[in-house]
């Protein structure tokens, strides 16, 4: 099935619901309708069209067709849940805010077009990973970030539960970096969490400045706070495991637990 859009043809190899197909088409039409009165410039790339804008010497490029591929369950060169955007020819980590129903990538691309449609835009609406676009004056308009309370390692649990030694958990993760495991741990609010997970190898690329080769852009090193970045395999989403508060873990047919495991 060939879907003709203002940004090029889409060879729909999957079988999406008609309602999803209609929504993607409407979103792409919305993107196109905003271009005539905007500073975005269409650029033809092989069989599709991307959109360019230069702001304070920085170039943003967005890819509506890639967004459509992601919405229709097709292969894309961008990671799932991320917007197909380049900043100065490099991928940028931008995701929608978490909600029960995720918005379409094509709708989010349309929102970016609308946000940067003219030279007048609200700096407070600009994703943090695009703050390099802002002038010094615009950055001064941003709200000051809340200071994160430093977590004190070894702080006793208010629940009175017993935990496995953190060194043991870290050794297990190092020994089985690609294995799926079941873990139960105590969250910082004192509740227990059960999860089937695997190590988030992308975040193992952390360079200390919130940058990653791909995957999730965390503004800190999780290990500093006794956390391990993982992928919840049941929902295929990024989560954090408290490595110093594990009550039970099962991996490669081995189970390690304390008497506090439920």
Using brief descriptors, characterize the structure shown:
globular; 2 domains; 5-stranded antiparallel beta sheet; 6-stranded antiparallel beta sheet; 5 helices; alpha+beta; 13 strands; SH3 type barrels; 262 residues
Describe, in plain words, how this protein is organized in 3D.
This protein is of the alpha+beta class and 262 residues long. It has 2 domains: 2-140, no CATH class; 166-257, SH3 type barrels. Helices cover 19% and strands 26% of the residues. It has helices at residues 18-33, 64-71, 105-115, 136-140, 166-175, and strands spanning 2-5, 8-11, 41-45, 48-55, 58-62, 85-87, 90-91, 181-186, 192-199, 227-232, 237-242, 246-251, 254-257. A 6-stranded antiparallel sheet has the order 11-10-9-8-12-13, with helices on one face. Strands 3-4-5-6-7 form a 5-stranded antiparallel sheet, with no helix packed on it. Strand 10 and strand 11 form a beta hairpin. Helix 1 (18-33) runs antiparallel to helix 2 and helix 1 runs parallel beside helix 3. It is globular and about 65 Å long. Residues 205-215 have low confidence and may be disordered.
């Amino acid at each position: 099935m060939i879907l003709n859009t203002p940004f090029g043809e889409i060879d729909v190899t999957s079988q999406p619901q008609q309602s999803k197909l209609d929504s993607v088409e409407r979103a792409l039409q919305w993107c196109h309708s905003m271009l005539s009165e905007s500073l975005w410039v269409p650029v033809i790339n092989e069989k599709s069209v991307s959109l360019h804008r230069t702001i304070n010497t920085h170039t943003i490029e967005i890819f509506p067709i890639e967004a459509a591929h992601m919405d229709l369950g097709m292969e894309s060169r961008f990671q799932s849940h991320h917007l197909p955007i380049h900043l100065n020819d490099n991928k940028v980590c931008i995701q929608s805010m978490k909600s029960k129903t995720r918005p379409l990538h094509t709708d989010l691309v349309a929102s970016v077009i609308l946000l940067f449609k003219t030279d007048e835009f609200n700096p407070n609406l600009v994703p943090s990973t695009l703050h390099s676009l802002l002038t010094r004056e615009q950055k001064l308009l941003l709200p000051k970030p809340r200071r994160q309370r430093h977590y004190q390692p070894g702080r006793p649990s208010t629940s009175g539960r017993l935990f496995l030694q953190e060194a043991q958990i870290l050794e297990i993760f190092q020994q089985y970096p690609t294995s799926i495991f079941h873990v139960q741990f105590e969250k910082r609010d004192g509740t227990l969490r059960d999860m089937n997970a695997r190590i988030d190898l992308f975040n193992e690329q952390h360079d200390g400045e919130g940058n990653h080769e791909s995957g999730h852009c965390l503004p800190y090193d999780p290990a500093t706070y006794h956390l391990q970045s993982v992928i919840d395999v049941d929902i295929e989403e990024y989560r954090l495991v408290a490595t110093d508060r594990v009550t039970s873990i099962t991996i490669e047919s081995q189970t390690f637990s304390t008497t506090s495991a439920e």
